[in-house]
Amino acid sequence: MIAETVCSAVSAAGLGIAVVTAYRKRYLAAVRIAAYSLVPIGLVMTGVVEWLADTAFSPTAWAGFGVLGVAWVLFMSTRAVERRRGGTRKERRAAARAADQPDAVAPAATAPSLGQGSRPATRPAPASRGDEDFSDIEAILKKHGI
Q1: Using CA atoms, how far apart are residues 22 and 16, in angstroms rounded to an integer?
Q2: Which residue in 12, 34, 60, 83 is deepest, having the highest Cβ count within 10 Å?
């Protein structure tokens, strides 16, 4: 009852300010103020204010909010543990089965690798023209252990 009275008074005061603003020939601002001042009375008429007032002073509602908070904390903690372990139980089982099967081919293994990571690490860096002829010979000698 008090909340509805306060909202009605705020709306009436806002409409009064809108009238004064319109009197000063600031019509756009007056319409905007009138729109804002009609919001509290609209909330009263729809019953939102009564619902909020009943909820704010109800111990059962606050206990419900507490239960929702605990549920949210539990949900988020399980998600954090899931991320740390590497996925859900179903995903871990699938990964373990794939690791147990030696003949299984990874889907990424069939696609050719492109970019700088595709060069072999043992490839010698290009040298000057004179050293380039000897690099092939050195590779052959190293291959035969000489």
Answers
A1: 10
A2: 34
- 39-58 b/e (C-beta count within 10 Å ≥ 16 → b): ebbebbeeeebeeeeeeeee
What residues contact residue 53 under an 8 Å CB cut-off, 6+ apart?
3
Measured between alpha carbons, how far is 92 from 81 in angstroms, rounded to an integer?
13
- 22 exposed, middle or buried (CB, 10 Å; 0-12, 13-18, 19+)? middle
pLDDT digits (tens, 9 = 90+) for 10-66: 999 999 999 999 999 999 999 999 999 999 999 999 998 888 888 888 888 889 889
42: its two tokens: 């609209």
pTM: 0.44
Q: Which residues contact 79 (CB under 8 A, 6 or more apart)?
A: none
